[in-house]
């Protein structure tokens, strides 16, 4: 197939606040979905419905295989689409409403199902939810990368995306723990109360569908400024394979994809067992968990900090520094517990310390996430210079897949760990044997975080500096001017 020709209207001036915010609203669906999946799927099906943790993890592992298939398919389809509404928005609109129905179904299985029936129910609705999230998120992420070609403004776009995501990531758990799943006399640890799950799932469903629909409709005015094909292009499985291979031939993209994927799986493993750690290791109730909303101050402080830091250092070194801090942040508090430095469970000062650690972790996570997403946009310029193709969809399918790996492969690993250490089901936190608690803390608090050394080593191989990106953009701009003047570009 011939090298595509793109057209778009030239934007006058920088991106407005409203443009960035309307695009950022699209972070709501994936943020809510990830928190619900990371926090409750394994706990609900294992501790409340009594399904073996390994069986739950196996189901979610199968769902990740579907992700590996659907992500590049949707990416290739949206990259090659040619409609009057652009390449991205039709897919986003298609997924918006049914997206909420998918996540709601996960937590409302019919009464009386056998263990096998519950497993099959989980499989269907998890695959449905993840597939619909792909149809929405891949084109939405591609729009974020297309809004600007500027090295610094791209980071600003990603900052709004993460700002909205973090705001929802804080407010929704507080709302759930305070009003949807509050502690009761019968269930002081409300996350073990089955009665709260249907309403929690309904609230999540509303946010998923409304968030997706809102950003789709509010960004329709951006369509003229997004790249469009000048003619219709074919789509086939063979084309998808060619598009994927072409993207992977850009070595810096392959490197960053591997780094993000490995980091997501490691972080996802700990996040998916965080609710086990909070409930059984630290002895926290939903009353305690609400206070972790304070950790949002770490994220708030990090947002303006990202822009100033990027002006002084290349994105590579910021990402490397944030990764090293994340490694130690995941281990320090657990080690202090084993050294008997921390107060006992139930002591108010323990909650203060844990919230402080979470606040620091939130700040690092924001910096890490924004810079990582911004890197992908820069790599796309290098890819276009080398191949002549703009594959925002395929490149951002990598981010979509890595995000789903957080809740997918992360639950697989988390479920495997819970099953491997033979953690009991249907048990009160006070009745869990002390050796089992120690084993949980060692594996999740120390051994799993050490795996971050792998992506840290890989980050050192990234090569697109600020100066190199400037050279790439200059070459692309010169080629575009030649094309506009009707001259042939070799």
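^ structure tokens above, recovered residues below v
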């Amino acid at each position: 197939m011939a090298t595509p020709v793109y057209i778009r209207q030239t934007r006058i001036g920088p991106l407005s606040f409203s443009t960035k915010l309307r695009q950022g609203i699209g972070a709501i669906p994936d943020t809510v979905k990830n928190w619900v999946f990371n926090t409750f799927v394994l706990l609900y099906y294992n501790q409340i419905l009594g399904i073996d943790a390994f069986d739950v993890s196996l189901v979610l592992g199968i769902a990740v295989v579907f992700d590996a298939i659907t992500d590049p398919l949707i990416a290739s389809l949206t990259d090659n689409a040619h409609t009057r509404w652009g390449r991205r928005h039709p897919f986003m609109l298609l997924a918006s409403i049914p997206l909420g129905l998918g996540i709601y179904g996960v937590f409302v299985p019919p009464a009386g199902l056998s263990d096998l029936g519950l497993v099959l129910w989980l499989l269907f609705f998890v695959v449905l939810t993840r597939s619909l999230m792909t149809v929405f998120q891949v084109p939405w992420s591609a729009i974020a990368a297309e809004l600007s070609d500027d090295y610094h403004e791209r980071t600003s776009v990603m900052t709004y995306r993460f700002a909205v995501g973090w705001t929802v990531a804080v407010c929704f758990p507080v709302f759930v723990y305070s009003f949807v799943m509050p502690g009761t006399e019968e269930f002081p640890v409300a996350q073990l109360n089955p009665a709260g799950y249907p309403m929690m799932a309904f609230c999540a469903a509303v946010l998923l569908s409304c968030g997706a629909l809102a950003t789709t409709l509010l960004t329709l005015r951006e369509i003229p400024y997004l790249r469009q094909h000048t003619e219709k292009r074919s789509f086939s499985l063979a084309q998808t394979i060619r598009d994927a291979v072409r993207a992977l031939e850009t070595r810096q993209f392959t490197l960053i994809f591997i780094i993000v994927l490995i980091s997501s799986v490691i972080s996802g493993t700990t996040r998916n067992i965080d609710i086990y750690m909070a409930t059984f290791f630290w002895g926290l109730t939903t009353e305690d968990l609400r206070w972790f909303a304070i950790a949002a101050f770490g994220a708030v402080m990090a947002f303006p900090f990202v822009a100033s830091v990027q002006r002084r250092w290349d994105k590579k070194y910021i990402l490397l520094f944030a990764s090293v801090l994340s490694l130690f942040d995941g281990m320090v508090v657990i080690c202090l517990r084993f050294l008997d430095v921390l107060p006992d469970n139930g002591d108010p000062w323990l909650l203060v310390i844990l919230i402080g650690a979470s606040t620091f972790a939130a700040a690092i996570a924001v910096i890490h996430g924004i810079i990582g997403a911004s890197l992908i946009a820069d790599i796309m310029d290098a890819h276009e210079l080398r191949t002549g193709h703009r594959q925002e969809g395929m490149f951002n399918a990598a981010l979509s897949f890595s995000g789903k790996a957080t809740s997918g492969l992360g639950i697989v690993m988390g479920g495997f760990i819970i099953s491997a250490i033979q953690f009991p089901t249907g048990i009160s936190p006070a009745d869990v044997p002390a050796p089992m608690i120690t084993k949980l803390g060692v594996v999740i608090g120390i051994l799993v975080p050490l795996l971050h050394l792998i992506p840290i080593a890989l980050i050192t191989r990234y090569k697109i500096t600020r100066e190199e990106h400037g050279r790439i953009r200059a070459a692309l701009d010169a080629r575009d001017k030649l094309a506009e003047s009707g001259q042939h570009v070799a």
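The first strand starts at residue 6 and ends at 7.
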